[in-house]
Amino acid sequence: MAGSHVQQGRARQAQVADRVAAKVADVLRADATFESGSVALSARIAGAAAAAIVDLPVSVRRELSKRQGELTRRIRGLVESFSDAPDGGKIALEIPKAVEPSKGEGLGKIATAEEGERLLDELAVARKLEDWAGPVAGANELQRDFGIARSTLNRWQHAGEVIALLKGTRKHVYPIEQFIDGRPAKGIGTIAALVSNQRVAWLWLSQPNPMLGGRRPINLLQQDHAEEVVDAAQTYFSAQ
Description:
Layout: H1 2-29, H2 36-54, H3 58-66, H4 68-81, H5 113-123, H6 129-133, E1 136-137, H7 139-146, H8 150-158, E2 165-167, E3 171-175, E4 179-180, E5 183-184, H9 188-194, H10 198-206, H11 217-222, H12 226-238
Antiparallel strand pairs: 1-3, 2-3, 4-5
Helix pairs in contact: 1-2, 3-12, 9-12
């Protein structure tokens, strides 16, 4: 039985490594700084690092986040010291003493605010809120279907303990998935406090997250894994 769990864990880590490596490779191919050989190697290293981190306990990941500078130095030291030579010789990295100033095309013509709004209107695609947020309900529906009093809902909203999405110009609706047994799932308020935009907060909660092994944060909150989700949210939004 234990062997089966070990094999499943390794298979999951391999899948994470492959997914991350593929995404990193796609990004690096668009960067002229990277040659084809360095793209593949860099992507594999990134995938291996992600696979090593994905199953670490929350406390260990939190400690790694605090020591990112040291972690970066150790990774660089590993790359520099890696060698197939018997004497363990270092790989010499050619680092230029001076970096040639970039000579890109610049920003180009700067559009006026009116022109920018016009271009955005042409690109924007209208979507119903439910298409991306999932099932939502207003205060009346929550009181009728879930027994949540309007006064209680207002208190939660003012205290920042629920996600409220503006529908139209004045009406607020509430994603139903955030409620468990008639009250907000533990951790919702903490995550909402990290993000000033309620739509961004709910989008993050409702989408599969690679930091959580491809699982949806809201599903983990429903399973009482608030600490793991909050830790991932702090790591993600502190880097913005």
